[in-house]
Write a structure and sequence with these properties.
The protein has helices at residues 3-19, 24-39, 42-56, 64-77, 80-91, 98-114, 117-134, 139-151, 160-169, 173-179, 181-201, 219-244, 250-267, 273-307, 309-320, 324-338, 344-362, 366-381, 388-396, 403-426, 429-432. By secondary structure, it is an all-alpha fold. It has one domain. Helix 6 runs antiparallel to helix 11 (181-201) and helix 19 packs antiparallel against helix 20 (403-426). The radius of gyration is 22 Å and the shape is globular.
Amino acid sequence: MEWQSALVLMLGALFFFMAIGAPVVFAFLAVNLIGAWVFLGQEAGLAQWVRNTSSSVSSFSLTPIPLFVLMGEVLFHTGLAFRAINAIERLISRVPGKLSIVSILGGTTFATLSGSSIANTAMMGGVMMPEMQRRGYHPTMSMGPIMAVGGIAMLIPPSALAVMLGSLAGISIERLLIGGILPGLLMAVGFLGYVVIRSRLRPQDAPSSPEDEVAVAGWEKWKPLFTDVLPLLAIFVAVVGSMLAGLASPTESAAIGVTASVIATICYRALTWKNLWTSLIETAKVSIVILFILAASTTFAQLLSFSGASTGFLSLIKSIGLNPVTLVLGMLLIVLVLGMVLDQLSMMMITLPFFMPLANAAGIDPVWLGVMILIGLEIGLLTPPFGLLLIVMQSVVPSSIKLPQIYKAAVPFLVIEIIVLALVFLIPWLAIGLPNLIR
């Protein structure tokens, strides 16, 4: 079979199954079964497919995924994240758009501990939205920061999605995790700048309240920072610092993070058998889904390669003569367009088998490209009509707030994320500077 026919068969079958409503994982598994039968030799091909699927999820490099997920689940279900948000709110007073700023700072803090964009948005929406609505905050100033900062969890370690991308793309997981830190923090600064400027120009969008004045001063004001925030940030420092110093691999640093999280919850007397069991169950659910996706995606990429579709497509792109810059721009454009209609996992599974061979052949830095793809995936979380965080936000706000209002609230922050993507494209050091410091 010619490579064009193989490519049409594989992608056509994939989009057919997705169009009829099959879950993404099962759509890929069905295509893999078809591909194994056609390209690997019928019954023998199915046996080979089973072996390939088994080996794709038995890699030790995937161990950080359940560990990072468990780390976030423990801190979430024991309530330590909520204590950190309350401590941050107590510190801020006489600042325009106080609750929006608390949402950004609290969400960024939780992002350094959870690694889950959905959990971040759901938690911050449930905690902050009712109060901001009661005080009359404009939808852009209430929903916008919560949705935007939720996506930062995709960039800042611990990020299970970054581990997945690194595994699927053959990028150093350690360097990819570290590479997302500066762009993630840059986004948080951009969000804060927008909120402060808009609050000063349009104070009616984030009205002040007597409740914004902190009733306590001195040590009582600062005590929660030292008791509820800094100890949790120390976990993040331990995870990232151990990798930067070359003292631990991603798997070992993830284990350090989980151990530190459990010790912290014990010290705060927040850990119970019930919330520990809940954390373990939720971790198992998420990890199983991720491993299923990795197995399906890895086999899909192998079948594309074996059928000649990847090689043929690579030769076609090479014959066009695109330079590396144009090639990267094309890849990012594809990711941004797909973000309007597909979820992040589907985008990675479809694009990476084609992107990475092209990038390797063109000599493109894989960490730089990987960080930009992560940012593109994050942008997809806020891109209408099917941005995942838009839907999550709709689930936590009153029914009186319609989806178009949520779309409008996300727009300014979507623009900031695109600006950060452009900066990383123009200044690669933002993505590769910290990874280059790894010893």
